[in-house]
């Protein structure tokens, strides 16, 4: 991805950015424009996560969305956004935590340069939402984990979660110098679109995935045996069940996402505390 020299946009408020909230604003105009174009937002209802000072919002508006909802947790930036876009009837400002929005929020397209410290929480939230397309900027290492292939060192629980809910497409890398202030790591832009598999996932898939990948180097049989407390099994019960599992001898980190789903479907749901 080509990029211009980072610069602070004109008319930015002179507010102190908060490291505690991972406030690093992408200042590269060419990258911002590329993100907005990737969203394919014309005529769509768009939600932006953590709009900050609205520099990405401006580029999204240039793509002629039907509506643009800006979610901003920081009160100083939410107030700034209200003033900045007060004359634009297409824009709605929500001074809220994105993680607390309803899962059925009415937006078909989602975009954001998301805060690093809550990236995993945002990915989990997106996995519960219904949308057509999302373009997000995340840490480069996170992008690698989301797209990791089975058997690789980056492959883990988040890889399975993301790839069973979305098709994850890599667009490009962004150097840390493209942000103000520069973070300690580089970033990447990824595109998420729905995976049809998500409609048929067992409700306890994430529990099974967590159980498996807490012992990712063991085989499936051993991993489930050592996680038997999740189901309340005795050692004898667990040993018998584990030995007869689908792909019992395969190493956990070598299981493809679809194989993890098949395995989860062969296991009962987590034992409730009342049982």
Number of strands: 9
Poorly predicted spans: 1-13
The side-by-side strand order for the widest beta sheet comes to: 4-3-2-5-6-9-7
Strand and helix order:
EHEHEHEEHEHHEEEHHHH
Q: What's the level 1 CATH class of the largest domain? A: Alpha Beta
Determine the N-to-C terminus distance.
55 Å
- Shape call: elongated
Superfamily at the CATH H level of the largest domain?
Answer: Vaccinia Virus protein VP39
State the helical fraction. Answer: 25-40%
Average predicted confidence as pLDDT: 91
In short:
The chain is built from ten helices and nine strands.
How would you portray this structure in words?
This protein has 10 helices and 9 strands. It is of the alpha/beta class and 275 residues long. It has 2 domains: 19-196, Vaccinia Virus protein VP39 (Rossmann fold, 3-Layer(aba) Sandwich); 205-265, rRNA adenine dimethylase, C-terminal domain (Helicase, Ruva Protein, domain 3, Orthogonal Bundle), CATH 1.10.8.100. Strands 4-3-2-5-6-9-7 form a 7-stranded mixed beta sheet.
